[in-house]
Every structure is written in structure tokens, then in C-alpha cells.
Amino acid sequence: MQNRLQGWSKEYELGIKEIDLQHQYFFRLITRLADELKNSSDFPYQKSLFVELGLYTHFHFVSEENLMQRSGYPGLHEHNKLIDGLNKNKLLFEEGHIEAIQVIDFLKMWFISHTVKEDRKFAEYIIG
Fold first, then answer.
1. Taking the model in full, what pTM does it have?
2. Alpha-carbon distance 125 to 103, whole Å?
3. 76: left (phi > 0), else alpha (psi -120 to 50), else beta?
4. What CA–CA distance (Å, rounded) separates 59 from 125?
5. What's the pLDDT band for 5 if we cut at 50, 70, 90?
6. In the predicted model, what is the mean pLDDT of residues 77-104?
7. Could you write out the three-class secondary structure of 33-78?
8. From its phi and psi, is residue 27 left (phi > 0), alpha (psi between -120 and 50) or beta?
9. pLDDT tens-digit profile of 14-67?
10. Residues with Cβ < 8 Å from 116, sequence gap 6 or more?
11. Which domains are delineated in the chain?
12. pLDDT, averaged across the chain
């Protein structure tokens, strides 16, 4: 498993079309956020990017958890860890305690770990 997002990888695909499409968008959103945070010093704009990411993250998690509930997945997991981590990193960034790259690294590592490990378990349960 790679430890950085370099580009979309088949490794991130689960074989569940709805989730795969959402993960592809999530990947593009993280990539765009990384680019914009590195290239823009417009702080209000940077903050609005975090709002966009937070809203999409919430949508994706509700959607994913609904699929898990509908299928009777016994390992239904909460996504609070990412939400808490994202909020913490966002606040630290806004207060000037961490750099944008640290937020991006957190998001990249979370995406890889969650998609390749946690969501893979769900895909195996659904697909068999």
C-alpha cells in the first residue's frame, strides 16, 4: 500500500459502484484542496474549502453508513474519527499552529487507510 496519494489507483476501488464514485470524488476533492492550499494565500477562501470538504465528508459517510445498514453489515462503523480529526486539523490550521501540508498529509493517510482497509471489509461482505 502506498503512503501518499499520487493519483487514483484501482487499489481504492471496492467494486460497489456508488461508493467507488463517491471515493473518486472524495479523492479529487482532497487533491484540489491540497493544490488550492498550496497555491492560495486567501485565508477566507481556504476556510471555505474546508467547509466544502466537511460537507462532502458528512454526505459520503451518511451514504456509506446507510448502505451498511441496508445490507445488515455487522461491522457498521462510525466515521467520527475522521470528522474529529478533520475539525481538529482545520482549527489548528486556522489558528496558525500547523501548516496546510500537515492537514493534507492527514487527509491523504486517512483516505488510503480507510478505503483500503475499513471499506474493503464492507465490500468483501457485500460482494463475497
1. 0.83
2. 32
3. beta
4. 22
5. low
6. 84
7. HHHHHHHCCCHHHHHHHHHHHHHHHHHHHHHHHHHHHHHCCCCCCC
8. alpha
9. 999 999 999 999 999 999 998 998 898 898 998 899 889 889 988 998 899 899
10. 1, 11, 12
11. 16-127 (1.20.120.50)
12. 87
* Grid cell at residue 79: 466515521
Question: What was the pLDDT predicted at 1?
Answer: 38
Give whole-number Cα distances, 68 to 11, 15, 16, 39, 125, in Å: 21, 15, 12, 38, 10
Distance (Å, rounded) from C-alpha 46 to C-alpha 36?
7
The amino acid that residue 124 corresponds to is E
